[in-house]
Specification:
Arc Repressor Mutant, subunit A; mainly alpha; about 260 residues; Tscrpt_reg_HTH_GntR; two-stranded antiparallel ribbon; 2 strands; about 5% strand; single chain; Four Helix Bundle (Hemerythrin (Met), subunit A); transcription
Length: about 260
Amino acid sequence: MSDSVLARRGDRADAAQAGSDRPLRRRPRTLALELVDSLGERIRDGRLATGDKLPTEAAIMGEFGVSRTVVREAISKLQASGLVETRHGIGTFVSGMGEAAFRIGADQLATLRDVIAVLELRIGVETEAAGLAALRRSEANLAVMREALDTFTQAVGEGRDAIAADLQFHQEIARATQNLHFVQLMSTLGASIIPRARLTPPADALAQDPERQTYLRRVNAEHESILDAIAAQDPDAARAAMRTHLTNSRERRRRAAQQAGAAP
């Protein structure tokens, strides 16, 4: 339900109520649920970020054309779902994505088996994301991906791990799908999508480890293949390159698990 539709419905409800002596018993509740949907959508798509203060009751009433009762009921429902919290005397603030939001916590990345499980999820999600990105990417998307890979190359050359650049590259592919759900899922996963984020050695150890630097250069070569396919607007090649990249990462972790005597 769009914000404008909700506002129009609120106007009609007010007009109907003014022209009739009979109370509209179900209308305030319906409007409250529609207001919950509208505000919840703003939270989920990032227009209202965690920590942001919601507009005042009066501002919401004016924007959506609803009564104070409707606003308060909607805020109460948002509180119950874990999306907002009210600080008395200060206002109502976005507290997160809600109790039902998908999360992968640190306790779910405690073992190599856990890391492999996340990679299996990524193979399913990011393979299709790469295909969609090839069809829909903008020049701006390509520029951000290129910058991320250049930063990756520079970091490895300086003996650093380039986790941030790796993450930026994959998140930009999600944005290039022009599908908000891919962006939200990747944002929720955060740095957990980069397996070495929990396994990486200190920077000085990396600089003295030629094998690890070779490994990271191979990872970025796989990234280059993905970018080439997306730039060429070849969805099949993009899917294949992403699947190869993530499958290689999964197999590297499986071999590490086997060597550690904890094969999944």
